[in-house]
Amino acid sequence: MTALGVVKTVLNLVVFLLGCLSIVTSQTVGIILSCGNREFRQAWLAQTKEHFIVLLTSVVNFASKSPIKVRIVTDSKSIPPSRIRLDSKGRLESSMPGGTVFIANHQIYTDWVFLWWLTYTARLGGFVYIVLKASLKKLPILGYGMKNYDFIFLSRKWETDKVVMGNQLASIDANARGKGTVAGKEPMKTTTSKDVWPAGEDKSRTWPYSLHIFPEGTNLSANTRRKTLAYAGKVGRAPFKHLLLPRTTGLRYSLLKLRDTVDEVYDITLAYSGLKASDYGQDIYKIEKVFLQGKNPERVDFFIRSFKIDEIPIGKEEETEDEYNIAQKKFEDWLFNVWSEKDELMDNYYKTGSFITNAEEPDRYSTVDTVLRVSKLDFLKIFLVPMCLVLLGRIIYQLYCLFQ
């Protein structure tokens, strides 16, 4: 690394750390100012959550040697082209409903950053929920901030995770109906296995959400490839060429919990320029190289389509054992079919550099080209509250000195 590269890396690290401190400071100030007003607290924390994806995107951009190109292909049968567009300055804008679930293949550690950025372009970056390892909530500063965001922390023990996930999703669903804690409500019944929230909807107090899930559970790597081959043999499924086999339990459970409020399920296929079919993205675009050394793909490719919840065979939440087995099989077949189509898209991408090569339906697919970026004003907002605190402290100090 050159001397200039070292300076750039140090500056990037300083900006990231200061940004994290600023965001956590802003969170704390908002919690204090809310004085128990839950709607104020929710709105304030949502703003700081958006600040976090703005910070992450800015750090990735600053570290990168050149602007990261973004190409988004949408299936017009499920997503009208007007939903993904460019504004007058060439920046990406998108429109999404208030209740969405994203499902995507998992190639590199920063997949979730690009998905979150996509939600940011719909002005919903403050309402994203992601699933993380439970150990991450112990991280200094970041752990505190992520807990305030109500991210879902799992231990990978389903009996424990089912309760944690179920209660948090039920809370998200209740808030989306205006019947949750943000509206001043409490669970009608709480047991060791689940919380039960009031039924109905108060449209004047609803809150949006976007839950992001990687059904594969982990990145594609040499090790996880071996594990998925073993899993394929266990469940009697043929392995995919470019993807891991998806796990169905957590996704189906999530959709069941959110079925009353989820408007659309976005099926997103992610691919990165510079990778060959034989490569493992996580080995090339390592997280420390992405954020500190600017080792980023030149272009991020999205293929997006959506499903209405009633198009997905999720079954019902209360089931007998036989009903559960039948419903689980139907959902598994649906998800594996989605992944099979996703695998074909990846095969096209590795062969041609594009997801879509079929010229028989030229009007079916819409393509938007842009770059990964955020508003400069949104970036400055990250530091607004700490700057105001410094200014207030200075004024108080000067007044103190004046009257001494």
UniProtKB/TrEMBL annotation:
SUPFAM superfamilies xref list: Glycerol-3-phosphate (1)-acyltransferase
Pfam families to which the protein is assigned, alphabetical: Acyltransf_C, Acyltransferase
Transmembrane segments: 112-132
Gene Ontology CC annotations of this record: endoplasmic reticulum
Highest taxon of source: Eukaryota
One example of a Gene Ontology biological process annotation: phosphatidylinositol acyl-chain remodeling
Domain Phospholipid/glycerol acyltransferase: 100-252
Keywords: Acyltransferase, Membrane, Transferase, Transmembrane, Transmembrane helix
GO MF annotations in UniProt: acyltransferase activity
Protein family membership: Belongs to the 1-acyl-sn-glycerol-3-phosphate acyltransferase family.
Protein name: Phospholipid/glycerol acyltransferase domain-containing protein
Biological source species: Wickerhamomyces anomalus (strain ATCC 58044 / CBS 1984 / NCYC 433 / NRRL Y-366-8)
